[in-house]
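As a warm-up, study this chain.
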Amino acid sequence: MEHLFPLMAEYFLLLGVALFWTIVYVLIIFKGFKDKACGMPFASICANITWEFTYTFIMPFNPLQQIVTLIWFLLDCIILFQFFSFAKKRSNKRMLYTAAGALMTIFFLLYYGAAVEFNDKMGLYSAFGINLLMSILFIQLLQRQGMQGQSLSIGFFKMIGTLCASIFSYYLHPQSILLTIMYIIILALDVVYMLLISKQEIKIVSQTSGAQKAA
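Now compare it with the structure written out below.
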């Protein structure tokens, strides 16, 4: 395969994906425990865990990739634990467990189907599909629960990590219109998310300053 980028640049892009997305998960976990609120949408957690399980244990394509996805899988298990732990008391836990199992089964079938249909051994199509879903649901989560479990740094590292993945994926599939569309939409949504987060933070600072002056 002809390389569009120098080999060293490819390694740096892959390192960026691994590093920045690991930072995203760690930040979500720390912010979640601090705020007593899960910082990742439920559907996104199920989608991520299933993808990571699939490409770590069932369809691995690279030993180094297995290590990275295993780390992500374990971190996402902690995030899922946070979701169940911080779910509102009125929530039916049994229904949540059933929903998680059903979603994971559906996602696995979709990932397997996409891998076969598109001959996608690296799971790029499903990975960017998850990423697009996350970008949409993160904005929805912000609107629903405010800054609980959310932060500007989470949005920033998600955007940078995904940008590294998008550039690397483009070198593999420069002819793919579908992937290119997803790269652009995800980037646009991540920028929107960061702008909304910034607006929320400015509002909180203004309210805090106003309360201190009033006191």
